[in-house]
Design brief:
Blueprint lengths: L1 H35 L4 H4 L4 H30 L2 H27 L6 H11 L8 H13 L14 H6 L13 E2 L6 E2 L2 H5 L11 H40 L2
Helix pairs in contact: 1-3, 1-9, 3-4, 4-9
Length: 248
Amino acid sequence: MEGDCLSCMKYLMFVFNFFIFLGGACLLGIGIWVMVDPTGFREIVAANPLLITGAYILLAMGGLLFLLGFLGCCGAVRENKCLLLFFFLFILIIFLAELSAAILAFIFRENLTREFFTKELTKHYQGNNDTDVFSATWNSVMITFGCCGVNGPEDFRFASVFRLLTLDSDEVPEACCRREPQTRDGVLLSREECLLGRDLFLNKQGCYTVILNAFETYVYLAGALAIGVLAIELFAMIFAMCLFRGIQ
């Protein structure tokens, strides 16, 4: 009976570690996507080191889970007490780190608000200056998503640097202009009319709403994935310790 129980525990341990392995691969993939994302969201929030640090933490946690899931599978199959103990301690450290990161994300969630992005845009945006990373990234986002500013074209009335560089002659930057098709290589419907702020020739919807709608499903998916990973890690630690105690 004891042997059957140990064997069952071993296979359960393997299954849970396999899910940790898959969860780590998913987190690693999300972290890599954030860091190399072609639409440049990383640069938009570059003024806030906390958000960039979060992306690096996600990358590191994904890599560690990927490795530890593999080690846990090996420890379970080979019934190696040293590997199991090593696995338990590191999973415990990662579990506590992820829990801390989730608490910090909740505390600093105001850094992802509409007001934060509006403040950064009005303070740093320089129009068509492609040598400025912040402005070039915003231009890329506005063209890609067919949107204008954070809330809409009215944001650029208060963009001090943009107003200064254009000598108050342009109501909106060229990136807000409608194109056919809506891509960087698309043809502007009317650049002159757009820069004068004519509604028919510019994208009127703000990027905050457009991007939020586009990624709403993925945000909930990422949250569900994170909760699932934490639950799996907790069960894996329990099974690892039970298997460790059962091995003679």
